[in-house]
Amino acid sequence: MMRNGHFRKHMGLRTRLTLIFGLGALMLSLLLAGLTYFTARHYIISQRETSDIHQSFANASLVLTGLRSSGAKVPAVIDSLGTAPGARSVVLSDHQWYATSISIGEDSLPANFKRLVLSGQPADQLFMISGTPEFAVGIPMPSIGARYFEIFSLEDLDGILRVLLLVLAIAALVTTIAGAATGRWAAGRVLRSLVATSQAAVDIAGGNLFTKLETTGDSDLDPLFESFNQMADSLAKRIERETRFTLDVSHELRSPLTTLATTAEILQMHAHDLDRQSRQALDLLVAEISRFQAMVQELLEISTIDSGSAELSLETVDASMLVRHIAHAFARDSVPVHISPALDGLEVMVDKRRLERVFANLVDNANQHAGGLTGITAEEKYPFVRISVIDRGPGVPPDQRQKVFERFYRGRTAGRRGNATGTGLGLALALEHIKLHQGRISIESTVDGENRFVVDIPQQLAQNNTPASSPPAYSDDPESPPEGSDQSSGNGMTRQGNGTSPQARKRSTNGSRRRIGRISRTSTLLATTTLVLASCTITAQSHPTTLPRKSIPFGLMDKSPFNPPLNTKNAPVEVPVTIYLVAATGRLWPVTRDVAFPAPLDSLLNALASGPTKSEASFGLSTAIPQQSGSLTARTVGSTVEVSLSSTFGTLSGPAQIQATAQIVFTVTALSGITGVSFKMKGHSIDVPNAIGALLPGPVNRSDYAALAPLLPVTSPAPSRKTVSTSTTAGPAARSATAGGPPTS
Q: Do 398 and 259 fall into the same domain?
């Protein structure tokens, strides 16, 4: 039945709505799970890092107190520390490394982190050792010339985050299933009413005008159902009035028409007594009365069918004998009749009177409007018996092949009264009779310009099938089954009602495949996202984080009054550093300075501001930084250095300002781990010019001064350095000049 087709369509819509709800719930649950996870992850890691930093401060204070004691040994001091489970201590004292674990030592620390702490800056960094997350804290202790490192294992925290991620993933899955179930329930609740409304509309369109929708008690849907029922009632009453009017008029016309016909017959009996003009008028009157009688009879039949009171008087007949009877009754002996041998012995159930009327109308249409009948053919087209009525043409245009079955449609003869010998109801009545037989009728045009009216009569009628549920009787393609039917190859029956043609089923299949493809791609993306989230438990930091000196408690960063050296047995260790001066060509030139370990940034910049030595000046080296600018101060923020400039520095302009800025940038970024420099003046960030004079907000790097790239020495003797140790707390750093000088071109 047609109901099955609509049910399947709406079931497809229900499935799509369920998928939409499910995917929406999945997206929302993943978003909430992601926000929850990353918020919790950030909070948990921050809390652990804060706790570990405080623990490191306490242990560093114990190490500081222990090493200040006379005769204290580093191994004994660090072994006495009450560290938390998974924590290990590493100490650098007198250029000797000590550790509480053989698995963690100097080589385990990240290079940038270790270098930063050795330079005198407290720092921390999260890194990985063999896939296990570790958190390291480094604290300089300048009063005893030592560096304290503590490494905390975060393996337990990593496990907690993985469990949290698993719980959130399960919650997202449950939410998705619940969303899909809710969507399916909501879609089913709405679509049940939609299916009922759609089926009722189909029934009304098929002629069942007494279809009603039952109210469900839903305040939103009941007004729609009531309006629909009122519309159906109004439509049924209107059609019933029109049908009754047509039927009554036809009945009322039969009596006067009978009288007129009888009178005309009497007049014809005395036609020889009339003159020629009177006889012509009488002949015209008789023809019109005959045409009028035929029209009234056809209107009565159509009205009976429209009112739903038409019934078939079925009888079983031999298909080949039926065709021969039709040909003998309505075709001339000269018209060829071709009957397929497959019809011999094939029995069909038909209403002979109605079929005779159908073919009488088709033959009459061929004789009056198509140049005459040229042939009749009959063949088996399972599950139909196909009978074709062929005329001389001309062919019916495709845009008029459906209109010719409309009531009172006469095509090109419309409006030309003299040529209109028919009533315009013959083909429309034939269509209605074919509908009652659950068959179909179509028109073909051959290459020779002939018309072929094709009538398909079912070999076996569907049981309890009313005209309202019959398939459409008109078809543009006689080879295709009627819309709404599905030909079964197993039981020999025509199964009605999947509501889709092969082309529609193909489009539906392709659409389903595309939807499945989109769903698969979306699921793959979501699965990939889940895997990425699963790998984002604890990740390593690429650079260490500096700790503010003011936040270091217990006086760990204080210096003792006598300021003992790092190594009392050996001379101070000198660290070679590179600074950049300005050559005679205007470009930068690297020279080397040795400063006592550790080498603070302030001392390095002040050595740059102090300018070249005499030997360097003899080679044309100079500095664009004014010596009266005072001490330059700097601090490290990750991989960036913030340099504070004095107001005197701001008096520079033009090339001098560019050269002075480039000197600082190249000198500072020569240190490992430093990639950029930002500048401040009086506590506020300032813009500095690049190599072409454009102001940049910073941080700036070497690429901004590519035009001032350092010159490489071409011919210069091997450098020799003279080292002069200086204090790291005041004054310019000790320096030694390269013996060779830069070329002047």
A: no
- Is the preceding peptide bond at 394 cis, omega within 30 degrees of 0? yes
More confident residue, 713 or 143: 143
Question: What count of other Cβ atoms lies within 10 Å of the Cβ of residue 369?
Answer: 22
- DSSP string spanning 328-388? HHHS-TTS-EEE-GGGTT-EEEE-HHHHHHHHHHHHHHHHHHSS-EEEEEEEEETTEEEEE
334 and 284 co-located in one domain: no
- Listed in sequence order, the DSSP H helices in 111-215 are 111-118, 155-205
Quick one: 291 and 342 in the same domain? no
Same domain, 677 and 627: yes
Last residue of a domain, one of 303, 323, 346: 303
Q: For the stretch 507-521, what's the b/e string if a residue is b when 16 or more beta carbons lie within 10 angstroms of its beta carbon?
A: eeeeeeeeeeeeeee
Q: What is the DSSP letter of 403?
A: G
Query: 699 and 589: one domain?
Result: yes
Q: Which amino acid is at 189?
A: R
Task: Show the domain range for 287.
Answer: 222-303
Residue 324 located in a structural domain? yes
Q: Looking at this protein, which amino acid is placed at residue 267?
A: L
Q: Please tell me the predicted confidence (pLDDT) of residue 209.
A: 67
Whole-model pTM?
A: 0.42
At 431, the pLDDT band (50, 70, 90 cuts) reads confident
The per-residue pLDDT for range 334-393, each reduced to its tens digit, is 788 888 888 888 888 888 888 888 888 888 888 877 778 888 888 888 888 898 888 887
Domain membership of residue 131 (yes or no) is no
Q: What angle do CA 249, 250, 252 make, to 5 degrees?
A: 65
Last residue of a domain, one of 268, 303, 338: 303
SS3 for 692-719, per residue? CCCEECCCECHHHHHHHCCCCCCCCCCC
Amino acid occupying residue 235: L
Q: What would the pLDDT profile of 59-85 be if each residue is shown by its tens digit?
A: 888 888 778 765 678 888 888 776 678
Whether 590 and 687 map to the same domain: the answer is yes
What are the structure tokens assigned to 553, written together? 């408690």
In this structure, is residue 509 part of a structural domain?
A: no
Of the ranges 18-27, 116-125, 438-447, 677-686, the best mean pLDDT one = 116-125
Here the CATH number for the domain that contains residue 293 is: 1.10.287.130
Whole-number pLDDT of residue 150: 94
In this predicted model, what pLDDT tens digit does every residue of 505-527 receive, in sequence order? 555 556 656 665 666 566 666 65
Residue 395, in any domain of the structure: yes
What is the distance between the alpha carbons of residues 67 and 488, in angstroms, rounded to a whole number?
Answer: 98
Q: Residues 319, 452: one domain?
A: yes
The answer to whether residues 373 and 240 belong to one domain is: no
**Rounded CA gap, 156 and 144, in Å?**
35
pLDDT band at 114 (very low <50, low <70, confident <90, very high): very high
Number of domains the chain is built from: 3
Give backbone dihedrals phi and psi of 458, rounded to 5 degrees, phi first.
-60, 140
